[in-house]
Amino acid sequence: MNRPHGPEQGVRAVVGTALAVAATWAGLLALGTLIAGRRWFVVACVAVLLVAVVTAVTRALTRTWWAPTAVGAAVAVVGLVLRYGAPPGRPQFLPDPDAFRRTWALAREGVAVVNDSFVPMPDVRPGELLVVVGALAVLLLVDLAVVALRVPALSGLALVALWVPGVLLGFPAGGAPVFWTGVAYLALLAYGAAPQHAHAGRRRRVVTTGAGAALVATVALVAGPPLMDVPGWASVGLPQLGAAPVGPLELSDQLDLRESLGARSAQEVLRYSVVDPTAGPDGTDDDEAGVAALPSVEETAATARAVDARLVGPLRAFTLTAFDGRTWQRTEPEAVQEWDPTTLLSSDAAVAGSVPDATAGTLAQVDVVVGALRERRLPVSTHPRTVQVPGDWAWDPRRDEVVGQDSTDADLAYSMLVQVPQLTADELRDAPVGTPPDAGLYTAVPDTEHRDDVERLVAELTADAETPYAQAMALQGWLRSASNFTYDTRVPPARTSDAVWDFLESRRGYCVQFATAMTVMARMLDIPARVGVGFLPGERAEDGSYVVTGRLAHAWPELYFEGQGWVRFEPTPASQTGAPPTWADPFTGVQAPGSVPEELTPGRVAPAPAATATAPPTSAPATEDDSVPWPAVALTVGLGVLVLGGGATVLLLSRRGRRVVETTPERAWATLRRDLARLELTWSDAATPRGALRDVQRALLLRAEGTLDGAALAAFEHLVAAVESGRYAPTPQDVDPAALDGWVAAVRDGVTELLGERPRAGAVPRIGRSSG
User: Which pLDDT band, with edges at 50, 70 and 90, does 196 fall under?
Assistant: First the structure.
């Protein structure tokens, strides 16, 4: 079938615009859960209707495809300025520069309201302006695609824009808006496939359109559930660790509790090995291990611990101290220094600068190779360790971080000799709160609107705790309890200015929420606390090394005790992190000081994750970013399937129309009649073929001051003769189908050439009846 020429006209144009209005109204329902009240919805619907009427009237007066959209956009701008830019207390009937400036200022205020508000956003005038602007833009784009360009499938892209805010914020609108938007979109597709003319094969096209709509709905229903089980694509975040599917990973300096982890990554960011440096190749003590002293056989037997990733624990890149109630902020280190690679780096001044000592703790040699990690802070063990790394790196003693001038590169290799102390719960029970450098920074609590509520809760939880350690354990135990909290990366947007209170109210979150809550609550007890950011220990590979992927990114709280320095706790549920460190484990400390989940132990079979509605099982250990907002994904997938299915339906219909079918004179005549009807050249059913030719010539003379001649006229006459032969001759002449198609194309091109450069200014005279 040949492509149509020009925009829709007449009744079809009005119907198309009406469907565009209905589809836009349906799409506005998606914002219902994000904005309080209904006034904004009524105003937006009225604005959409008024602009649609202007567009339809303009289209009735011109055949230019772009003019109605341009006029509609101009009227929309003027209407917005008159409504929202009028001086306070009085109406304005003509726009002026001041009105434009007031409208622009109101729009900027609307953006600020959106950024500062919590769901549901209040129904205020600045926000209403933004909604109306978005609704009018969607209407004009849908109308342009459906009526002007005659590609209804593209309208789905504009309609999806109204669903993006709800999807990104994790507040899907529900079933009714999805249903009505889907129905409206299918109606637009059916409109595009509907017959252009009374004799255009109505029955076949109606049946085909209905079948196509049913196919789209079926595909959406059948394909939706399986697509929900497809793992998320690669990009990582804590909450924003990377920006590309396969790009390098970078830990975020700013952790915003209003955001979730989002997508996750299976990229390898680190690979390392862990060995016992005190054992030689034959398993005997190595006299050249480079340590201060070796323990006796009796001491070794009494304190032996497996030297593996569990012992070394997580690898920390940096710590965060400043919290404003919603977001963690990080500043650059004030003073860094070079260090001796043979001595220990530690936040404990009594240990920093000393030589690794096998009698002071278990030693572990860790050799690391960087993969897809681009980070200016080197991931190192939280325990005292030596660091040997090539390049320009320095040590920040206040934060105990290894900071580089440039980011890490792939294949960067560095090594650590970690001294894991024999820290026990008994030692911490009697330890008082310590005083780290800049202690005030680690006990500061933001003055949020719910600070008093959180402090009352902290006092209640720790009422029976007599020591700082007991208080910390009470907080950790309460947060880790599955009966109190659910691990879930689908964190709803904040409803107050106090992110910790929102988390404690919703009882759902991931590592950032758990770590932040315990840090702030510990500070309310005057215990210095900070948040560490890095990676959980890796998964054991076949060659014995440990592989760290982006999905193992993690955050945890660290509390400061006198004589022990910064001590790590683990409030994030065990289903994601495994058991807490030995010194923070209330169940007799059966695990080594690392906090690797037991499924990472060599030779163990990973247990199935707990069956919850928030964390779907994966092939890898469930960690910080192992769940995604599936309702939002399902909503996006459903809309995407509708758009793609609609496009596929239109493509199938167009191919069906263009499939190779033997052309007959009557088929060629019907095709020509449809094509000329789109150019408003029609004739009566009573007209003979030769009468139709004369009527077309007469109409062209009136409209274009010219008639068909040359090849176009000859083609028209040949086609007339073929039709007459088929209708009236006893033995119709055989005509080559290719010749028939060529005659139709020649006539259509000739008419288009006459009319194309001379759009009519007034009404088009209709072709009169003729009997030939």
Answer: low
> Which of 130, 152, 128 has the alpha carbon at shortest distance from 141?
152
pLDDT tens sequence across 250-274: 666 556 554 444 344 667 889 999 9
Strands 565-568 and 322-323: unpaired
Handedness of CA 32, 37, 43, 46 (dihedral sign): positive
Residue 379 has pLDDT above 70, yes or no: yes
Of residues 187, 228, 174, the one with CA closest to residue 646: 187
CA atoms within 13 A on the CB side of 240: 9
Strands 393-396 and 401-404: antiparallel
In three-state secondary structure terms, 556 is strand
Q: CA–CA separation, 102 vs 473, rounded Å?
A: 56
What's the pTM?
Answer: 0.51
Q: Whole-angstrom Cα distance, residue 668 to residue 156? A: 34
- As a whole number of Å, the CA-based R_g of the chain is 36
Provide the CA 486 distance to its chain's centre, in angstroms: 22
- In the chain, the amino acid numbered 325 is G
- The distance of Cα 287 from the centroid of its chain, to the nearest Å, equals 56
Q: Yes or no: say if 445 and 523 are a contact pair by the CB < 8 Å rule.
A: yes
Contact 65, 149 (CB under 8 A): yes
Q: Centre a 10 Å sphere on the Cβ of residue 50 and count the other Cβ atoms it contains.
A: 15
DSSP codes, 256-299: BTTS---SB---EEEEEEEE-TTB-TTSSB-TTS--S----HHH
Nearest CA to 515 out of 472, 550, 457 is that of: 472
Q: Could you write out the DSSP letters of every residue in 303-333? A: H----SHHHH-PEEEEEE-EE-SSBEE----
What pLDDT was estimated at residue 217?
57
Beta bridge partners of 271: 369, 547
DSSP per position, 708-739 = --HHHHHHHHHHHHHHHHHHH-SSPPP--HHH
Could you tell me the sign of the dihedral formed by the alpha carbons of 72, 77, 80, 82, in that order?
negative
Distance, in Å, from the CA atom of 345 to the CA atom of 400, rounded to the nearest integer, reads 7
**How many other C-beta atoms are found inside a 10 Å radius of the C-beta of residue 210?**
13
Q: How many CB atoms lie within 10 A of CB 656?
A: 15
Tokens 């780096």 correspond to 345
Q: Which residues are paired to 323 by β-bridges?
A: 328
Cβ atoms of 271 and 538 closer than 8 Å: yes
Beta bridge partners of 598: none
ω into 239 cis (within 30 of 0): yes
Residue type, 89: G
Mean pLDDT of all residues belonging to the chain:
78
CA distance 520 to 325: 9
CA-based nearest residue to 41, from 18, 24, 16: 24
34: pLDDT strictly greater than 60: yes
The phi, psi pair for 667, rounded to 5°, reads -65, -40
Compute the 3-state secondary structure of the chain and give helix, strand, coil in percent, each to the nearest 5: 45, 10, 45
In terms of phi and psi (left: phi > 0; alpha: psi -120 to 50; beta: otherwise), the region of 265 is beta
Is 194:213 a contact under the CB 8 Å cutoff?
no
Largest Cα–Cα separation, the chain: 120
Q: Does residue 126 have a pLDDT over 60?
A: yes
57-83 tens-digit pLDDT: 999 898 888 999 999 999 999 999 998
**Structure tokens that stand for 677 in this block:** 């009807």
Mean pLDDT value across residues 596-623: 35
For residues 446-472, b (16+ Cβ closer than 10 Å) or e, as one string? bebebbeebeebbeebbeeeeebbebb
